[in-house]
Amino acid sequence: MSAGPLVVEIICTCIVAAFLLHRYGDLRKQHVLVTLATFIAWYFSLMIIFILPLDVSLTFYRQCLHDNAPPTTTVAATTPAVNVTQSPLQNPDQYSRVGREANNTADSVPNLLPLAGPGSSPIASPLADDQVAGEPAHSICQQPVSYVSDNVLPALWRVIYWTSQILTWLILPMMQSYSNAGDFTVLGKIKSALIENAIFYGTYLLIFGICLIYVAARPDLDIDGEKLKIIGVTASNTWGLFVLVLMLGYGLVEVPRSMWNNAKRGHKLSGTYFKIAKLSTEKTEAEEALEDVLEEIRRCAEKIRYNHPLRPHMDTVLAKCPESTRRSLRTTNLDDYEDYGPSTTAAELSISTLVKLHKKVIWGLQLQRRTQIQWNNLMSQAFALEEVEENMRDPSQRFKSSQDPVHPILRTFYTPTVEWYWKCRVQAWVFMGMSLILMVLSFMVVWSECLFFIQSPVLSLFAVFINLARDNYDYAYIELASILTIAYLCFCAYYSVFKIRILNYYYIAPHHQTNEHSLIFTGMMLCRLTPPLCLNFLGLIHLDSHVTHGYDTQETSYTQIMGHMDVISIISDGFNIYFPILIVLLCICTYFSLGSRILSMFGFQQFIGDDDMTSEFVDEGRELVKRERRKIERKAEGDTRRKMWTERFGNGATSSRDIPASGDRPEKFMVARSPDESDRTELLRQVEPIDYTEEHADPLADYTRSLRAGSQGYQAQGSRFTSSRSASSKPARGIFDDV
What phi, psi does 83 have (nearest 5°)? Predict the structure, then answer.
């Protein structure tokens, strides 16, 4: 027995989950509870993907031992003979131990076999040397390198499965809704979270209730704790399989097609222009909606002074606002005392109004941040594609880039010439080759999903290949093929989750740009879709007894923990087997872009390619990219001029307030001049150049603020209101720190 491969997989999976969480999340800013829950969800979901192939290889080894078990031994006696079948031992290590003891013993120890007749006594019947228990199976079946004891994987699956189910149905949805709630108390946030998750819990309880009524209506079944557990697992897997089929129907076609389109640079650049044009409208709407919410907060903050009973809640709302909004409110007369009587507190100043306002600002900031991050990523992608187009026309065959420079160590191998050949010549062919491979994989998945329930002849392609490897005892190939297949199914499913427009509120962005709510949503979907996906994979390779209908078929430890839906035959023998056939219809609709064309008919413009409206969006996106490029170039030129001026004349010459009097002026402030230069010329030389890229303040607004500050008098300068201002100026540290 060697637990080394299992330990290595557990450690490597932990490292992969930590790396992904570090790449997409910001560990320094996000709450520790979000980091911990998301890490566990990602880690356990990845463990299912990488450890299930090991369980498959061990199952084939146990099946080999079962098929090559010692034959039936017939014992003759004075009483009627009985047939005693030596069942295979549960622990395969016992085979080798019994065989070694038998070979080292000259005289075989007689086996005591019970007689079938009542009142009979056992008799001794020595077995031949070639009939020693376990010796034939041990000599024929090869033990996998990754073999572990039979009680290891079941214990591991119990911890992984039930922890992931608790996370996906209870903890993560409540955390997500709790952080988005606008209430100011813990109980209020929990109540809002329960109401918001009523849809998810309602769908689950609906499936659970139907299954429970079906079991209760059958007189031959009794409801106990074990059956309730199976009903709960059935409801969860049914919900997950329903969503999984919808996601796979889109992803199995769109993933290879997107890879093929990446090879066509012109098509990809046009698609990027189209996305930028659509995102521009969404970005503008998000910014306008946020400005409306902030303006409403300003009006509400002017009514709620420092001695108002709702002022602490108002400070909580202000803490979520941007710094510019809080800074603008510091100069107003927020701290003026006002006598709030019973008739003064109107309905518009109630706590429910602040709760709604608090939730609006949370959602508005999340939407504005999402659109801004997606805008930056699309702009970077458009700049990179335009650079490739420009470098393809360069006869020097050296790639010239204005993006982030390559690391010096990597540049020794990845020279500009190598970069030019890779991006301008080789990359497109690599994408085409990968697209063809993914097309073959998608066809294999669709074919097997439609025919995996046919046992003879075996039509599931994955079952055919896995069985060939099993006959040759090639356990390494079995594990590798299983990992690649499950990983591809997961990628297609999760790719669809973030590409469907209705779920576009959540996003995954690298370089620590994914917010906490998207991380929680990702962990929730991983835990919810991975178990039914793995059960579907076991059906594809015929390791599910409900597919093969074999009585002597050994099952994986994962299936033993999950249990069979024998209690609900409609789901076990009907829905789980025949519903995946719907993938064919969904793939056909996705291939012909029926969904995109229908959305375009209803006004939701999609990138189709042969539409006039699409061409207009592409042209608009191209102009937006040019405008953004000019803006970046002007900013870079302004920074360069400012840097050159600072290096030439020093920091002291940039501001007249820092220049001492002429009599006390140090030598470094003196600028050499020719005798024919006048004093005016000298002063003009020391003036800081005008930077047209900066956003100068409005003189009228400055004058108005100065008048307002002057009218406040001593009240604006008092220190007795410092605590109120500081409370509203410090933002909350995390999404759970506002109560």
Answer: -100, 120
Q: Name residues whose C-beta falls within 8 Å of residue 316's C-beta, 6 or more positions apart in sequence.
A: 184, 358, 732, 738
Q: What residues contact residue 95 under an 8 Å CB cut-off, 6+ apart?
A: 65, 88, 89, 133, 134, 135, 137, 138
d(CA 660, CA 663): 8
Torsion, Cα of 728, 730, 736, 739 (10° steps): -40
In order of 277, 611, 627, 646, the CA distances from 619 in angstroms are: 9, 13, 13, 41
Q: CA 72: distance to chain centroid? A: 54
Which has the minimum average pLDDT: 248-252, 593-597, 607-611, 734-738? Answer: 734-738
DSSP-derived letter for residue 652 is G
For residue 732, give the DSSP letter: P
75-98 confidence digits (pLDDT tens): 444 444 444 334 343 444 443 333
Which residue in 614, 699, 698, 538 sits closest to 274, CA to CA? 614
Contact 469, 553 (CB under 8 A): no
Q: At what angle do helices 516-540 and 152-166 cross, to 10 degrees?
A: 140
Query: CA dist 35 to 333, 357, 363, 498, Å?
Result: 41, 27, 21, 21
> Which residue type is seen at 504?
N
Nearest to 445 by CA among 422, 428, 471, 463: 463
Give the pLDDT confidence of 220-239 residue by residue, as tens digits.
667 777 777 777 787 788 88
Distance CA 46, CA 35 (A): 16
Per-residue pLDDT tens over the stretch 389-425 = 888 888 888 888 877 677 778 878 888 899 899 989 9
Residues 165, 532 contacting (CB under 8 angstroms)? no
Q: How far apart are CA 438 and CA 445, in angstroms?
A: 10
Looking only at Cα atoms, what is the longest distance across the chain?
138
The conformational region for residue 650 under phi > 0 = left, psi -120 to 50 = alpha, else beta, is left
Angle between helix axes 186-196 and 198-217 (nearest 10 degrees) is: 60
Q: Which residue has the tokens 């509870």?
A: 33
CA dihedral 600, 602, 603, 606 (to 10 degrees): -20
| CA quadruple 539, 545, 550, 554: dihedral sign | positive
